[in-house]
Amino acid sequence: MDENDLVRRIRAKARRRGSRDLVMGIGDDCAIFHPPGASEDWLLTTDLVIEDVHFRRDWHPAAGVGYRVLARGLSDIAAMGGAPRYCLLSLALAPWTDARWVNNFFRGFLDLARRHQTVLAGGDLARAAKLTCDIVLCGSAPRGRALRRDGARPGDHIYVSGVLGGSSLGLRTRRGKAWKVHLRPEPRLALGRHLAKTLKATAAMDLSDGLSLDLRRLCLASGVAASLDREPPVFPGATIADALDGGEDYELLFTLPPLAKPPASFQGVSLTRIGVIRKGKPGAVELLGRPLQPRGWDHFRGM
Amino acid sequence: MDENDLVRRIRAKARRRGSRDLVMGIGDDCAIFHPPGASEDWLLTTDLVIEDVHFRRDWHPAAGVGYRVLARGLSDIAAMGGAPRYCLLSLALAPWTDARWVNNFFRGFLDLARRHQTVLAGGDLARAAKLTCDIVLCGSAPRGRALRRDGARPGDHIYVSGVLGGSSLGLRTRRGKAWKVHLRPEPRLALGRHLAKTLKATAAMDLSDGLSLDLRRLCLASGVAASLDREPPVFPGATIADALDGGEDYELLFTLPPLAKPPASFQGVSLTRIGVIRKGKPGAVELLGRPLQPRGWDHFRGM
């Protein structure tokens, strides 16, 4: 059972009866709602961050953990082309956490929140053996215009923002620029909105679990296959495996109609065409003519 | 540092700049939003449920864990007089969880969701050493009419629904009716809406951490004191300590204006007047003329 299988099983059980305001449910970066009368659609997403699963306390400084918890949620809003509005934080402190750690955690968290006009509006507090966070992000998007994973069509071109593999390299070496991008990934919020509004992207998602796995998910959702005719841009010093299979880069993966002419970069972030969507077995991805195995981060592989 | 202190410190740091749609932020059972143009207010709440903190796998059957996770979120919506609409579930499975456990967990969860027309619209999946859930509930309430903790005024009468201490007794004995109410607490959703719409309650919250602690929180939020002139109704077989300090009863604690004449019960659930709100040191609570110490469940006492 892998994560895709588990999600499919849960979705099959969670029928959507009586959910007339639900535009998109299980299976994308955010759920999409249309509250009756509202001028915009609303986005909602939740993500876990757990000690010794998503971070290590002897490696990750408290402010970096706080930053990364919020960035993880913001990146899901970016992937939908939305604007973040509110967040809720569930936080279970561990026996080792002291007031200083908590203060630094909230400094990293709230600095990023302010930068993106995101208001911490509530949450839950508990204690547990391992420090545990769950971030809930609530955002808005122009009505019917949120970007989704399921809109890619044969002939669309496939793009990634930025360079990949930096976070994976940073986690391995814990120094230099790679460690910095691991600790402070930049959620691509302005780019997400530009993709939705101006570039008319047909599909998008954020690269949280690695290109090889996430592109497979986008293709599964859209019922299409993909051919990559070049390797993605690689973070200086990282390997191609870091770039293909390393998670937590939080760049955007998106598809544009065949005739779109995107700029080479947006606000200093490169936009690189790496391949094309094609008909074929849903979820099948090729790189330079060979099958690309989904080796990204899947908690449930081999379960 | 207790939970109230920690919440106060976080709230002081989380300023609300740029949050014109946020009706109520940190400090109540739910955050309250008014999306531009929407015909209703929206409620959002999140709650953690962690193995060996909130349940034990050798005591709690999987379906009961699933039920209780959702009930915890639904009860927060009930406390605001709202109607549940959508939920998101973050779930980290532990090494010991197998497909059968997961199926039973979702059976308990989704049976309750269907009963309250609540649609599972998304979430996150991970693995961790301990089974970890975070439930996100999204509900709606008539505009400006959600019940809050901060509206109690001197002279208001204090009420509780049902009988208290059953969950605490059930957790201790793990048999009989008490164990059943521990495993399947009934979120008081219809009562919450009745309190908001018909009885015009001035304040309300759910009893998740015990009457002695939760009444103190309601008084702190409202800037008032409270005198209880009788003990609350006690679950058969439970002690008065179970009823005063035991958590997870998920009954409603609420205040009504002095002249209100509520029925003795609503849909078979008793409504019992136990005291009166008075001026005084905010958060001070007396029972039969003596100070009532807040001994309910506080993860952070003595931290």
SSE order of chain A, as H and E? HEEEHEHEEEHHHEHEHEEEEE
CATH architecture of the largest domain in chain A: 2-Layer Sandwich
Rg of chain A, alpha carbons: 19 Å
Shape of chain A: globular
Structural class, from secondary structure content of chain A?
alpha+beta
- Amino- and carboxy-terminal Cα gap of chain A: 5 Å
Q: Provide mean pLDDT of chain A, rounded.
A: 92
- Protein chain pair with the most extensive contact, residues per chain: A-B, 70 and 70 residues
The helix content of chain A, as a percent range, equals: 25-40%
Tally of alpha and pi helices of chain A: 8
CATH T-level fold name of the largest domain in chain A: 60s Ribosomal Protein L30, Chain: A
Quaternary structure annotation = homodimer
Work out the count of structural domains of chain A: 2
The low-confidence runs of chain A, each spanning 5 or more residues with pLDDT under 50, are none
Q: Tell me the total number of β-strands of chain A.
A: 14
CATH homologous superfamily annotation of the largest domain in chain A: PurM-like, N-terminal domain
Strand content of chain A: 25-35%
- In the CATH scheme, the class of the largest domain in chain A would be Alpha Beta
Sheet bearing the most strands of chain A, described? Answer: 8 strands, mixed
